[in-house]
Amino acid sequence: MNTNLGQRLKALRKKLLLSQEAVGAQGFVSTPGWIKIENSQRLPSDQLISKLVKWLVQDKYLPAGDQERLRDELLMLKYLNHRSEFVRGLATLYQQTKAGAPVEIEGPSPEAAAARGRRGLKAAASAPPAAGAAASKARGRR
Predict the structure, then answer these.
(1) Residue 139: inside a domain
(2) Does residue 133 lie in a domain region?
(3) How many CA atoms lie within 13 A of 133 on its CB side?
(4) What's this model's pTM, rounded to 2 decimal places?
(5) Which residues, including other chains, have CB under 8 Å from residue 1's CB and lie 6 or more apart?
(6) 3-class SS at 35?
(7) What does the alpha-carbon distance between residue 70 and residue 140 come to, in Å, rounded to a whole number?
(8) DSSP assignment, residue 129?
(9) Is residue 56 part of a domain?
(10) Has residue 99 been placed in a domain?
(11) How far apart are CA 73 and CA 64, in angstroms?
(12) What is the pLDDT of residues 9-54, one digit of tens each?
C-alpha cells in the first residue's frame, strides 16, 4: 500500500477522471492548494479530507458504503507521515489493527462519464468559485 497521502489523492482523482480544477471548484480547497496537497507540499486538514470524501459520495463518484473506509484510510495516511514520531507510531498501530485493504475505486462507467459531460475534466475550469470559497478568500483565510 502506498503510504504517501498526496500520491494516493492524485491517483484517486485521476481514476475518477477529475481535474485538479474540478476539485478546486468545490470550494473546500483552492486549485493551487490542491496541487500542493498532491505534491506533498501541504497536508490537508482532517476537515478537508472529510469534506472531500463526502463530496465524492454526494456526486456519486464513491458508493456511500465506502465513505467511512476511505476517510479513515486518508486520515491514516496523513498521520503516518506526521512530523511527530509519537503520532506516526499511533498511526502505525492503528494501521495494524485495521489491516484493511485500500478502498478500490472503479471510476465512472463510460455512460456515467458521458452523462456528466466529462465536467470534471474541463467544465470546472470555467465554473465560478463556490460562495464559501469566495467569502473565505475575502476574509483572507486562504
Answers:
(1) no
(2) no
(3) 15
(4) 0.67
(5) 101, 102
(6) helix
(7) 31
(8) P
(9) yes
(10) yes
(11) 15
(12) 999 999 999 999 999 998 889 999 999 999 999 999 999 999 999 9
Write the pLDDT tens digit of every residue in 97-135.
876 656 666 666 666 666 665 555 544 444 444 545 444
Rounded Cα distance, 6 and 39, in Å: 6
Buried b / exposed e over 8-24, threshold 16 CB at 10 Å, is bbbebbeebbbbbbbbb
Structural domain range at position 55? 5-124
CA distances from 102 to 8, 25, 43, 93, 109 (A): 10, 26, 19, 16, 21
Question: Half-sphere exposure of 9 toward its Cβ, with a 13 Å CA cutoff?
Answer: 28
Domain count, the chain: 1
Look up cell 470524501; give the residue: 53
CA dist 31 → 79, 87, 93, 110, 123 (Å): 23, 29, 33, 26, 14
